[in-house]
Every structure is written in C-alpha cells, then in structure tokens.
Amino acid sequence: MILTREKKEIWSSFEKMSFRFLFLYFSLYVLSIFTSSLWEPVINWIGTFVFNIDYDFSSNGRGSGDTTYAYLMLFLFLCFSILGNIIWSFLDRKRKSYNQLQYGLLVGLRFILIFFMFTYGIVKIFHLQMPALSNSDLISTFGNKSPMGLAWDFMGFSKTYSVFAGLAEVTAGILLISRRTQTYGAIATIVVMLNVFMMNLCFDIPVKIFSFHLMLMGILILMADFKRFFGVVVLNKNINNYTIYPQQNKEDRKIILISKTVLFLVTTVFFILTSYPRYKKRYLNSKSPLYGIWQVTKFQKNRQNTFTESSLKERWNYITIDQNKYATIKTLDDKLLPYKFTVDTVNNNIFFGKFREKKLDTLTYQKNDSMLFIKGVFKNDTLNIQLKFKSPEDFLLKSRGFHWVNEYPLNR
C-alpha cells in the first residue's frame, strides 16, 4: 500500500517513492492556499515562456479558483514534486520507512479537511453560502441565469436542504477529529465532496480544483486504512489486528483528547460567531420600508408615455427591494440593474443612483396600501412612476409549499 496506518519497519521502494511524491505535492498545495500571490513571479514566467499565454492573468480570481493562474500553479507543483521526489530519493535512499512523517501528513490533511468542512458546513447551516431567493431572483428570467446562478437558486430555495448539506459536511469534519473514526470521516468527506465536485463540474462553478483536492485528501486518509476497509466491506473477511502508528500511552491520549476538545469548541464558536452577524443582517434585521416587489403600471419619462422598440431598455418593468440601501430595476428587455436605494421615511424621499456614484439623486415617493408613486429628476430626466405591490406568493415557486401527498406531479 502507498499509505497505511500500520507500523511497518521496512517500506518497499515503490511505497517510499509514492509517499515522497504525495507528501511534496499536497504540502505545496496546502501551502499555496494561504500563499497564492507569493508564487506570482514564477507563475507569470511559466505562463509567458513555457505555455506562450498572451493574455493577462493573476492570482486574484475575484472568487474563482479555476483561473489560468491556478492551473499553472498545479503544473508547477507537479514538476516540483517529481523533481523533488528524484532528489529526495537519492539523498535519502538508505531510509527504511517514513512512519512518523506519514503520520504527520495524515494529521495535517485531517486538520485541513476539518477546517474546510466546518467552514462550508456552518455557512450552509446558517443558509448563507447559497442564501434564500431574493425578490430580484423571483423576477429574473430563467433563461438568463448562468449555470452557477441556477445552482445557487436551487440550493437557496430550500433552507432545509441547505441545513442538511451543511450538517453532512460538519459531520464529516467531526468524524475526522478522532483517530477511531477518521476512516468514517474520510468516507463521509469523499461522498460529500464528490457531490460538490460534480455540482461544480455540471454547473460551471469555479471551485472545481479546490473541491477535487479536498476529495483527494479524503481518499488519501481512506487509503491509509484501505486494507481493513476493503477486507471488511468488500471481501467480508475478518481482518487481524495490527499495530497503528504511533502507539500512545494513557497520558498522551489524555492530552490529545483535551487538546482536540478545546480546539473543536474554539473552532465551532469561531465559525458561529462569524456567521451569525451575517445571518442576522440578511434574515433578522429590519427590512426597508419599501421592501418587496413593485411592478410598474405607469412609467412617464420627460412627460412621455410611449417608447420606441430601441428604447425599451429605458422603460422600467419592476423594482425589487431586498436589503436596505439596495434595489434592483428590471427593464422591459429583461435586464437587471443594481442601484443604491436609500429611503427617508420622514421626508418621503428616495436617494437613488448607481453603485460607483457618490452623489445620489433625490426622488419623492408616496405609498398608499399596495400602490407606490415615485416622482423626481433622475439623470436629468423627469420621472413619474406608478407601481403596484406584487406579493411573492403570486409566484408558484413561493406559493407551492410542501405536500406529503401528491395525486399528480406538478412539474412546470
């Protein structure tokens, strides 16, 4: 076996070379998670002179982990691991085994997996990674959604499913904490991350490299106990006990247990404390006085009610207000335009403008039951707009609800 939890005094040449490669590659990859930008001079040189890339690329993917820079970094790590393996094998050719270093690698991989299983799991439990559908999501056109946006809406629609997915990731992390349950944790991690990786592949979510490597880490941890796993699960055989490296005395186990407990509690509290303010802001804080979906029933610009076909983009169809200080306008040509939108309820004013503008235009409004009237000058144009409140329950997606009994499928 390439990796094993069993203490072996003498490793074969294949086992030693395989371990050296895996140790180098995953050490470099984990290091790059926190030091990605430091590799930029080398990566830029490789991209320009080795692969003849003639477009700009950098370590800043603005949320994407599948950039040109990321793939070039994997190529660099692969080369370093192969070259380092050759040099290491020559310099350390007399060593019989790497039991201690292998143990350190497995502990390190478990720590990384635990951290990210908790990171992504808890934000899903708080329904933050793929948040609940917004008002602007309800009026957006299905065909104009990106595959990633579709996946986000799919996950965001059901808080229960988001919590379930988060609990699965957190459970995998918890099982990885103890040596007794690390194999179960590895299996859970592989299952969870395989689903995430396939979702990233099928919905063009740019975290494919990262999710694939988390799954690989789970596979490595499972490989360390593969002899027993394969014998029991596949062959249905009784596997003899073997000595697990390292053997710990009672005092060592006590110290490790206390350390793990403290680290688990600190980590859990940290993630909850950092997630709750975001949860409160999105779901618990008071909403804008004009919160909701407003459908335009009358739109007059510079006292004109009619529009040519080429000017449809200027005619508003909906205004959706989800959070304080933000609104989205949907035009008749199905474009969604984000704006700053602050409401002054004392003077019945709306401060309105694009995101990058510091000075906002001031409009006046009147709200009467389910009707909203907005007047004023915006971008040197006089606007007179009449809007009607549209309830989210008017959308089948929000009103359908859950049914234990379905005589017929409602598939629209």
From TrEMBL:
Its keywords, alphabetically, are: Membrane, Transmembrane, Transmembrane helix
Q: Which residues form a coiled coil?
A: none
For the keyword Transmembrane, the answer is: yes
Q: Is Membrane given among the entry's keywords?
A: yes
- Span-the-membrane segments of this chain are 21-39, 69-91, 103-123, 160-177, 184-203, 209-235, 255-276
User: What protein name does the entry list?
Assistant: DoxX family protein
